[in-house]
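yo, Metal-dependent hydrolase HDOD is done. seq:
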Amino acid sequence: MNQDKIQSFLRELPKMRNDLPFSPEVFRKLFFQTGASSLASLEEVGKTLGNDQGLTTRVLSLANSAYYGLQAEVQSVSRAAAVLGMAEIRNIVLTLGVNGLTRGRTMPNGFDLGEYWRHQFFVAMIARELSRITEVGNPDNLFTAGLLHDIGKLIIAMRRPEDWVGIRELADAEDMLDAEAEEEYWGLDHAVIGALVLKSWDLPPTLVEPVNWHHAPELSPGHSNEATVICVSDCAAHAVEEEEDRYDSRLDALCPDLEMEREEVLEVAEELAESKDIEQFIRLLS
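structure:
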């Protein structure tokens, strides 16, 4: 166990606020204004993002891309929010923020950024659909949590590439899941690392906690149901992507908590895997 390494790493994480391509204050205001109980207007959301002209330009570029298929071009963030919805604007900004962290960085050999985002989006899609089916949590929030669930892996690869390689080698040698190898390597998994960063960005617990506990939802003190949705979605995505049955036992254990059968969950995942949205989303970020 590399305690010195992990302690040094943990001390760095709050400083990543400064690595975002825009002020972290944008996140705080945006999530307050787009929350379920918020009375903020579309104009107020537009003003929050309009304080950073570069961010506004990028948001509008994505909003007008083929992915969203709008019939008419939107020329303001407030109009984009009206057409796409507040939650979608929030997801665009979050994705731009996370993807911006990687600009100018050399990722370790074996880390495929396109595959990373493909999995995040796939899990997000599954989580949103399971939320709708089971009426657990808020579908929009769980989609966002799905987009963020493995940000800890990205951060390890960015900030500690040698350790990312070491963890991967351990996982391969011992036939471990990534989270198991991380626990063995330095006593902490990527879910905790990701949650610490998201908390430092002032994101709300409804997003941070499902990410924090998505490998152990039964231990979550306050958001166990939402964490279960993310965990089940993650396992289902891996099962479909890798065509392996190693996730069956985990799905069998957790699916009853959602009042679903494993076969039902996998059917949802397999249908969503055929969606063209995933590849279109990847192209948005390239």
